[in-house]
Design brief:
globular; seven-stranded mixed β-sheet; 8 helices; alpha/beta
């Protein structure tokens, strides 16, 4: 966590609370799933919801469903007949994600793919207004390259965990593949003249990218 727990608690107390469904999903994830902190949570979930509502996407792509929290939040901004395509490599998480998609009444606007995103992304023919990358860090640059031409002009890519608990500032990184990749990803985006970007020091870092 990049901010103090007290500040985070204050921010949560002064933000609109999660829906009942998201509260239940949060609790069940923490009770039953390994590494529950991978879940977006109240503040980031609300931010993703707001961004989606501002963009008003027809098609969203999420790489890394986990238990479905962020997909439910992102789906709030979809226009009528819009779809969020969300990819999760861990088949053991499918049941809990589908359960909460149904409880949140988002099943009809959610397409869940179970498998490797590197294999699945090339099969998707849609043009995306918004892409959210929150999967294995080693492949961030590959995901970026795979989705870039599928994002419309003026569309957005958001990448999570780009501060990686502050490890991006630490030296050396010789044995930490994830940190090496995050640093390389951040540098690549900054140098990509096809986009504008903002590295937002929020939670574990969000890279917000707008395709020119």
């Amino acid at each position: 966590m990049m901010i103090s727990p007290d500040i985070e608690s204050y921010a949560e107390q002064h933000s609109k609370p999660e829906s009942i469904v998201l509260q239940k999903l949060y609790r069940e994830t923490h009770l039953k799933v390994i590494h529950p902190r991978m879940l977006s949570g109240q503040l980031q979930g609300k931010l993703l919801q707001f961004m989606s509502q501002m963009i008003k996407p027809k098609n969203i792509l999420e790489i890394g469903t986990f238990t479905g929290y962020s997909a439910i939040c992102l789906s709030e901004g979809l226009i009528e007949n819009g779809i969020i395509h969300t990819i999760e490599i861990n088949y053991e998480l499918e049941d809990i994600a589908r359960k909460y998609f149904e409880e949140a009444s988002t099943t009809n606007k959610t397409k869940l793919y179970i498998g490797n995103a590197i294999d699945i992304i090339p099969t998707l023919e849609e043009t995306f207004d918004l892409v959210f990358i929150d999967a294995d860090k080693e492949n961030y640059r590959k995901y970026y390259d795979l989705v870039f031409n599928k994002v419309r002009k003026g569309g957005f890519i958001i990448a999570d965990n780009v501060l990686w608990s502050g490890k991006v500032l630490e030296e050396p990184h010789h044995n930490d593949k994830d940190t090496i990749e995050i640093i390389a990803f951040n540098k690549m985006v900054l140098q990509d003249e096809r986009v504008d970007n903002l590295l937002l020091p929020f939670r574990d870092g969000l890279m917000i990218i707008r395709k020119k």
